[in-house]
């Protein structure tokens, strides 16, 4: 098969790396890719939101399968546009992209189909949102922009001042344009966050794995939210009983709900979850794989994903078990996710022997690999235990160098889950 992976980050490098190991993969292309994807396939310069251009690549390269990484081409309807092309596409239609592209529609869907989620209120009027927040007695609460905001449209407001400033920022000042003109205000859930990933085709699905993500920029979950500073897979506190509850209350109700709406879902489906004292709750859906969780998932799961994507018999609803743990540390440009510099040479990758490095914000210029984004590299190491994987990854990270390199030093620290593991 000839495969086209759409996207330019670490998630796309990892997906390409995973399918390239399959005997079914004959040729691999990336649109546009990065400095790392160029080592395992052919990068093609261009805009992946230009669907005419994407189709021309499919025709010219005789592509059999298109794997879409980012959310924006999905929300913009790439699956609908390519429906009648000769290639299969792993991306849901725009009809079901609302699960990610509209927090309001997703929350109403969950409520309709009795899928556990935090209690919420929807506001399209600025003054009504302000009045509501001023009478709140229980803090903190969560404020979410309705539309796509690159993972930055969620704020945990600790008090009324925080909440009012966020409402001003989102609704009045239009920080994210139309995406934040409407908001969801919801109760704050206490518990332990984790994510589950599935590949879905209609009423059939297979679970690709589970992971724990680290969003804040600094150790001990301090600092501004980012696209992700690291991950651990599998989720170390999930028991078989907890997995059954997630499947019954969330995954299967979601798939059945989509069917009841007459919607056929085909593609990746991400469940951002919180385990509370009352069981699992949905924080959010994504209609794609997570970044950086994918980079750890592809390492921990030894199955042939290309076979899973193309063989209907593999959609058995099973939750895979693993005999190893992977820890991933994201190397970023200092100042990310706010202001940072780029264009610095990356050195030391040839010395990394006991980990896999997926590229995110890199580029090759004048035969040199340079930094070209906020998140630069994803370093993933695996071991028989969490502590072994953690020791490996931080040992290998120290071999890599670029100016203004920064990373969290507490990825995989078990104290984060002390309450649930004790």
Commentary on this structure:
The N and C termini lie far apart (48 Å). The strands form four sheets. Strands 10, 11, 12, 13, 14, 15, 16, 19 and 20 form a nine-stranded antiparallel beta sheet that branches. The protein folds into four domains: 2-91, Rossmann fold, CATH 3.40.50; 119-187, 2-Layer Sandwich (Dna Ligase, domain 1); 192-314, D-amino Acid Aminotransferase, Chain A, domain 1 (2-Layer Sandwich); 325-421, Glycinamide Ribonucleotide Synthetase, Chain A, domain 4 (Alpha-Beta Complex). It is built from 13 helices and 20 strands. With 422 residues, the protein is an alpha+beta fold. Helix 1 packs parallel to helix 10 and helix 7 packs antiparallel against helix 8 (160-172).
The number of E-state strands comes to: 20
Do you know the CATH topology of the largest domain? D-amino Acid Aminotransferase, Chain A, domain 1
CATH architecture of the largest domain: 2-Layer Sandwich
Measure the end-to-end span.
Answer: 48 Å
Unreliable stretches covering 5 or more consecutive residues: none
Q: SS-based structural class?
A: alpha+beta
CATH class of the largest domain: Alpha Beta
Kindly report the name of the CATH homologous superfamily of the largest domain.
ATP-grasp fold, B domain
Largest beta-sheet details: 9 strands, antiparallel
Concise synopsis of the structure shown:
The chain is of the alpha+beta class. The chain is 28% helix and 30% strand.
List keywords for this structure.
single chain, 422 residues, alpha+beta, Rossmann fold, Dna Ligase, domain 1, D-amino Acid Aminotransferase, Chain A, domain 1, five-stranded parallel beta sheet, 20 strands, 28% helix
């Amino acid at each position: 098969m000839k495969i086209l992976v759409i996207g330019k980050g670490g998630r796309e490098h990892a997906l390409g790396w995973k399918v390239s190991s399959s005997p079914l993969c004959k040729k691999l292309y990336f649109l546009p890719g990065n400095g790392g994807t160029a080592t395992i396939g052919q990068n093609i310069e261009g805009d992946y939101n230009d669907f005419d251009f994407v189709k021309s690549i499919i025709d010219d390269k005789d592509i059999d399968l298109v794997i879409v990484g980012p959310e924006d081409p999905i929300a913009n309807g790439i699956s609908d546009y390519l429906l009648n092309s000769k290639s299969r596409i792993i991306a849901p239609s725009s009809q079901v992209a609302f699960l990610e592209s509209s927090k309001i529609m997703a929350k109403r869907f969950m409520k309709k189909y009795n899928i556990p989620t935090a209690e919420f209120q929807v506001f399209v009027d600025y003054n009504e949102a302000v009045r509501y927040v001023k009478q709140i007695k229980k803090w903190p609460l969560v404020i979410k922009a309705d539309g796509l905001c690159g993972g930055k449209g969620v704020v945990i407001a600790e008090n009324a001042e925080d909440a009012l400033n966020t409402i001003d920022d989102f609704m009045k000042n239009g920080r994210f344009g139309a995406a934040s003109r409407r908001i969801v205000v919801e109760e704050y859930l206490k518990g332990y966050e984790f994510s589950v990933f599935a590949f879905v085709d209609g009423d059939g699905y297979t679970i690709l794995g589970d992971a724990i993500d680290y969003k804040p920029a600094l150790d001990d979950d301090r600092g501004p939210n980012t696209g992700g500073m690291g991950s651990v897979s599998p989720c170390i506190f999930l028991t078989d009983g907890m997995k059954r509850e997630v499947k019954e209350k969330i995954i299967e109700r979601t798939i059945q709900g989509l069917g009841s709406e007459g919607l056929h879902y085909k593609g990746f489906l991400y469940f951002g979850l919180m385990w509370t004292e009352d069981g699992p709750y949905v924080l959010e859906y994504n209609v794609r794989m997570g970044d950086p969780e994918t980079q750890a998932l592809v390492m921990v799961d030894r199955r042939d994903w290309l076979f899973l994507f193309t063989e209907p018999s593999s959609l058995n609803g099973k939750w895979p078990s693993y005999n190893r743990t992977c820890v991933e540390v994201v190397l970023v440009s200092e100042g990310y996710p706010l202001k940072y510099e780029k264009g610095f040479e990356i050195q030391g990758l040839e010395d990394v022997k006991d980990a896999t490095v997926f590229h995110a914000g890199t580029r090759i210029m004048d035969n040199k690999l340079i930094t070209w984004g906020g998140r630069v590299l994803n370093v993933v190491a695996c071991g028989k235990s969490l502590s072994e994987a953690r020791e490996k990854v931080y040992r290998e990270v120290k071999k890599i160098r670029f100016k203004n390199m920064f990373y969290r030093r507490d990825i995989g620290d078990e104290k984060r889950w002390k309450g649930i593991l004790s």
